[in-house]
Amino acid sequence: AAHDPRQYVTTAVEEEAAEALPQDHELLQSFPNPFNSSTAIHFTIGAKASVELTVYNEAGQEVVTLIHDELTAGRHIVSWDGRDALGQAVGSGVYLYQLRVEEWEQTRKLVLLQ
């Protein structure tokens, strides 16, 4: 019998390949975490866009907005020194940092130890 290569073509393989592609936008875990003086927040955006990176406390209250600007596509790094919008040091605890790119958003946790 002749070998028919079509029997090995499945849509599942194509779907897996599509899922393996990187997301357009991605917020990575801050490092170091936990931190006590400064932590670096890495993120990637897929296209030039309006970007907002904000830190919140566990109660959901805004602590500081680190970025509110239009950024170019690619990888970006922003550091946070554990201070609020007024420059005051915030207390130890769990904080959330949220990246918003247009209608897309992602949130992660970080821990400040003093």
Describe, in plain words, how this protein is organized in 3D:
With 114 residues, the chain is mainly β. Helix content is 9%, strand content 46%. It is built from one helix and seven strands. It has a four-stranded antiparallel β-sheet with strand order 4-3-6-7, with no helix packed on it. The protein is globular, with a radius of gyration of 20 Å. Residues 8-22 have low confidence and may be disordered.
Mean pLDDT metric = 85
Please count the helical segments: 1
Q: Into which percent range does the helicity of residues fall?
A: under 10%
Secondary-structure element order, as H and E? HEEEEEEE
Regions with pLDDT < 50 over 5+ consecutive residues? Answer: 8-22
The computed structural class is mainly beta
Q: For the terminal residues, how far apart are their CA atoms?
A: 73 Å
Strand content: over 45%
**What coarse outline follows from CA principal-axis ratios?**
globular
Radius of gyration: 20 Å
Strand order of the largest sheet: 4-3-6-7
Total number of strands? 7
Q: How would a textbook summarize the main sheet? A: 4 strands, antiparallel
